[in-house]
UniProtKB/TrEMBL annotation:
Record's compositionally biased regions (Low complexity): 407-417, 446-461
Region described as Disordered: spans on this chain: 399-461
Protein name, per record: Protein kinase domain-containing protein
SUPFAM superfamilies in the record: Protein kinase-like (PK-like)
Listed InterPro entries: Kinase-like_dom_sf, Meiotic_Drive_Suppr_Kinase
Native source species: Aspergillus niger (strain ATCC 1015 / CBS 113.46 / FGSC A1144 / LSHB Ac4 / NCTC 3858a / NRRL 328 / USDA 3528.7)
Lineage of origin: Eukaryota, Fungi, Dikarya, Ascomycota, Pezizomycotina
Amino acid sequence: LEEQRRREQAERAQNQAELQLRLQTQQTTLPEFLDACHVHLFLGLSIQQDKDSSTKGDPANADRKLRPEKIREWTSFPAEQALVWEDLMDAEFVTERHFTPLVVLKEYGKETRQRMVSSELDLGYFERQTMESRVSSVVEQLHADPQLRQTFCLNGKITFENHGNTLTDDSNLAADMDSLTITQNNPRRSQPDQFCVYNNGPDEKIPAFIVEYKAPHKVSLAHIKAGLQEMNLDEVLRFQEKEPPEDICRRTIAAVITQAFSYMIQGGLEYGYVCTGEAFIFLRVPPEDPETVYYYLSVPEEDVGPTTGWVDESSGENRLHLTAIGQVLAFTLRALRVPVRDVTWKSWATSRLKTWEMVYDVLLGEIEEKDIPSSEFKPPTRSRKEYCRVSPVKTRSRSAAIASCNPSRDSASASSDDSGDGYDPDTPSRQPQESRILRPPPSSAPGRQGPQGSRSQGSSRQYCTQECLQGLVKGGDLDLKCPNVSDHGVDRHRLNRKTLIRKLDKQLSNDKLHPDSKLGCESLHVHGTRGALFKITLHSHGYTFVGKGVPVEFVQRARHEELVYSRLTPIQGTSVPIFLGGLPLRRPFSYDGIAEMVHLMCMGYAGKTLVRQRGLDPDQMLQQAANSLQAVHALGVLHSDPIPGNIVWDERNGRVMFIDFERSII
């Protein structure tokens, strides 16, 4: 009998061990994944407190950047996030096992704990390990679900990209071998702390929101709590002698927000966030009011604590939605639904905004934390406090979970006075008797026409044919196969190359800007090393073609390329696109927040590059490319860069063309 008992005990122990092994090594569900990321990854954040071992510098250099007039609390943020969770919890996806096993996440956590955060680079590494890669993996799995792919407008995956060295002139770098130093004639537009998050698909890459990283030893949680509040920037920028530390904190946090805000405006993006590792300041710029930026503060360690309250397959209260990855995931899915704003909106918004100008700057690092008034007396904002009380991430009793997130419209008149509500900060997940989270007004959505100019007025038009533009250049007959021929004239073109460029100049320089202006310029979100592509439509005559925008560093190269196209006139439309002319922009505009375009090269659209093509016969492409390149060389032009990214396939006419001649030799 004793032997049997021991065997049964050993068998139970073995079964338990096998169960634990399976739990550790199997793929996780979404709730399990969120829980493990908080416990094993996020809580591994370790900040270098030794100032001698940390990077120095001003964390809030907003000099000459576009700034808001007002900074306001984003009170509808929790309700908007809860609606995302409602969409997710309605899908069977949340109970399916798609994500990294626990044993792997624990190993990642060990790695992150070995590296203290003492610089923006360290913070970037921490966020890549604990946030960027994790959110990207969730989005990729969501894309595999047809229903969720449509719900959240997913193109495939998301990428976090830094553009500090994009569209900059590497040829200006010169190595001084005598002193072993590197010199550069023109300063780079370096944005080492800023990342743009893209909705990436096989044929397009659309900006969704921006992220600004600030090292936590430079912008501490104490600084944020002391400085983050509703502000009018005209007052914040008014310098006074012997200012208290709290005023300096306010100005510094305003400057940090301004850095992200400026990038959001120039990129035409509604959403962004500032991250210090400890805190996330989520931002929104409404399309109808670019002078105001709204903020919501998330402090996951305070909001969640050491555990999330999640129990396997539980319908009980938890704080998964308050974790760093939970907040950023819902924020990401919301931002991906909103189309990027076009050049018209960006130009209109820029014309309404002032720039940051502050003569006397005081570094935040000079303020000791002991001198900052204690923020302990400041309770969390009402919206943050209420979001801590709901629990939208549940896999059972979903109707109850949804009910807890669906706000009562009758609560709009509720008093903002929080006294007497019995709130206990030690029980953040306790459900209040009546939720006062308000459902936000309808926000930007795909296909919605509105002040944000989310869809360019010319985006519905197809490109003119090469034969059409050839007729315009040579003063010939119309191409009846051109999709826009009805607007070009009768029998013959009403414009020539010069009048087209003149009218386009007038259209793009329209001084009477408003959100619904028709500038006819739409970013294609495609750039090379020296230029970016735009879809251009001349509204008066319907001509639609491509504009290659270049920043000031590359204007001379663009003019050289225009000379090359002139040399190649005999083969324009067959081996190279039709060139319509160059246009110095009287009112420059931003390319996706990366660089300011000051010059536009206009040419016919010849198709996608070979890099982006699928299903073409390689041998046929190679032979046609060789023929086109030979035609270029026959006119005394050496292309110098005949890579697949500079070769396009004209599907309409079944031929290969070469583009990008800025490096060519005549």
